[in-house]
Design a protein that fits this description.
alpha+beta; elongated
Length: about 170
């Protein structure tokens, strides 16, 4: 029963292009052949609500403002109450080149929080050589491979030895 439910939850792509060759081929096809039952298949089981219900979008909590290259940051990921097989997939990309900088990480140790949801914290290193980074995450059901919508946060990265200049110093006043 679980295998059939997982099979039904998979994405199915239908090609809806139309060509005259296909139309001519289908005109010769008789309806009697279509009515023949498929071998070895019984009536399909009802789709469960868990397979249809979309996964919640994770909430990312990242420190505000600019991030300093070479430093570690703590990223907190929050989800509402979900099934135990749901994990969070988190990765870090360079915003301009779209290169994968870190991850993807599967965050599996979701713990209950005070608000009735689940949360996990992880530590990420801010890499050198980037002007901006993009943190992205999705919720992922490991049994059905169902994914949530993606959440994205973009942050500016500054070098660690950037001098603190006042506006008067920049203008030479």
């Amino acid at each position: 029963m679980n295998i059939a439910s997982a099979w039904l939850a998979q994405e199915i792509v239908v090609d809806d292009t139309y060509s005259e060759l296909e139309a001519n081929g289908t005109e010769n096809y008789s309806f009697e052949k279509e009515k023949q039952p498929l071998l070895g298949l019984s009536s399909s089981p009802p789709i469960t609500a868990a397979a249809i219900e979309p996964l919640p979008i994770p909430e990312l909590h990242v420190p505000d403002g600019e991030l300093i290259a070479g430093k570690f940051i703590i990223v907190r990921v929050v989800l509402p109450e979900v099934l135990p097989q749901v994990v969070v997939k988190l990765w870090l990309e360079d915003y301009q080149t779209r290169w994968l900088l870190e991850g993807p990480h599967l965050l599996t140790n979701l713990l209950p929080n005070a608000l009735g949801g689940l949360e996990v914290m992880t530590q990420l290193n801010i890499p050198f050589g980037c002007l901006e980074i993009r943190l992205e995450a999705i919720a992922l059901d490991l049994t059905t491979q169902q994914e949530s919508h993606k959440v994205t946060i973009v942050r500016t990265v500054i070098p660690p030895n950037l001098p603190n200049l006042q506006l008067d110093e920049l203008l030479g006043m």
